[in-house]
Specification:
Keywords: NAD, Oxidoreductase. Residues 17-173 form the 6-phosphogluconate dehydrogenase NADP-binding domain. It comes from Punica granatum. It contains 15 helices and 9 strands. The chain is α/β, with parallel strands linked by helices. The strands form 2 sheets. A 6-stranded parallel β-sheet has the order 3-2-1-4-5-6, sandwiched between helices. Helix 10 packs parallel to helix 15 (295-303). The radius of gyration is 20 Å and the shape is globular.
Length: 313
């Protein structure tokens, strides 16, 4: 019998059973790291085909979030929207918390509402369980390479005990109590949004100026304009590779949460508001299932130019 992760016993492949809800672009790679480290894993995904690669690696399939939790000591979730988080974790009949035994831990890695993270933490505590909000940054490449930035909100002892699992996925940063991981991720998204606008505006300007855009990206990458967004997406944009490391639809959701929080806080962030409108334009054009780098399409339309045939080394 596996030892509950909610006790003082260390988390190891021999003592800890893992559950995972949501095996999309990010979740699939993250699960694979846990499987390769020797952890037993039970997964649930609404679309079975997205879980099949993990089943091929040895994961078991759960019939619902509740059934996954009943076979697990620690249950991770990374789904689409706050409504999905509420459903898969808190639904009284099918949600993970309904199947989790006392001492178990919920770890939600979805970017979601800070207030919902607090609610989940309170609901878990009332059942003798723990909850951590731990959204991530780094995109599909970070998930594949195990180099994600993880923003954790919750109590220190629980987060410390989860370190063997987090370390397989990336670097955990404890940001404070329940909800603080979500606040940190939202601030991260605000930073990324304006950075992406700046990157693509620079690329279009360089193109109109007659520069080799690929050489220009390489030239600025080691200077003050260098960024993770440039490293992840500059070359992809030139190759017209809009496969989603992170979906436009989900980014619109994230930026909407950010704007709602800004209104609640009484602060104005005009760069965030502009970026959100540009991404909403992408969604309105039916491009919500592309990656966030597809923002270039909006700027191309605004300027009647295309980087499709831009000179690139």
């Amino acid at each position: 019998m596996a030892t509950s992760a909610g006790t003082d016993h260390p988390i190891t492949p021999a003592t800890t059973r893992i559950g995972w809800i949501g095996t999309g672009v990010m979740g699939r790679s993250m699960c694979a790291h846990l499987l390769r480290a020797g952890y037993s894993l039970t997964v649930f995904n609404r679309t079975l085909s997205k879980a099949q690669p993990l089943l091929d690696l040895g994961a078991q399939l759960g019939s619902s979030p509740s059934s996954v939790a009943a076979q697990s000591d620690v249950v991770f979730s990374i789904v689409g929207f706050p409504s999905d988080v509420r459903s898969v974790l808190l639904d009284p009949t099918s949600g993970a918390l309904s199947g989790l035994r006392p001492g178990g831990v919920l770890v939600d890695m979805t970017t979601s509402d800070p207030s919902l993270a607090v609610e989940i933490s309170s609901a878990a505590a009332s059942k003798g369980c723990s909850a951590v909000d731990a959204p991530v940054s780094g995109g599909d490449r970070g998930a594949r390479e195990g180099t994600l930035a993880i923003f954790a909100g919750g109590d220190s002892p629980t987060i410390r005990r989860l370190e063997p699992l987090f370390s397989l996925l990336g670097k955990v940063n404890h940001m404070g109590g329940p909800g603080k991981g979500q606040y940190a991720k939202l601030a991260n998204q605000i930073t990324i949004a304006s950075t992406m606008v700046g990157l693509i505006e620079g690329m279009i300007y360089a193109h109109k100026a007659g520069l080799d855009v690929g050489s220009w990206l390489s030239a600025i990458s080691t200077g003050a304009a260098g960024s993770k967004s440039l490293d992840l997406y500059g070359a992809r944009i030139l190759k017209r590779d809009f496969d989603p490391g992170f979906y436009v639809n989900h980014f619109v959701k994230d930026l909407g949460i950010c704007l709602k929080e800004c209104e609640r806080m009484g602060i104005a962030l005009p760069g965030l508001a502009l970026a959100q409108q540009l991404y909403v334009s992408l969604k309105a054009h039916g491009e919500g299932n592309l990656g966030t780098q597809a923002l270039v399409l909006v700027l191309e339309r605004l300027n009647n130019v295309s980087l499709k045939n831009a000179p690139a080394t």
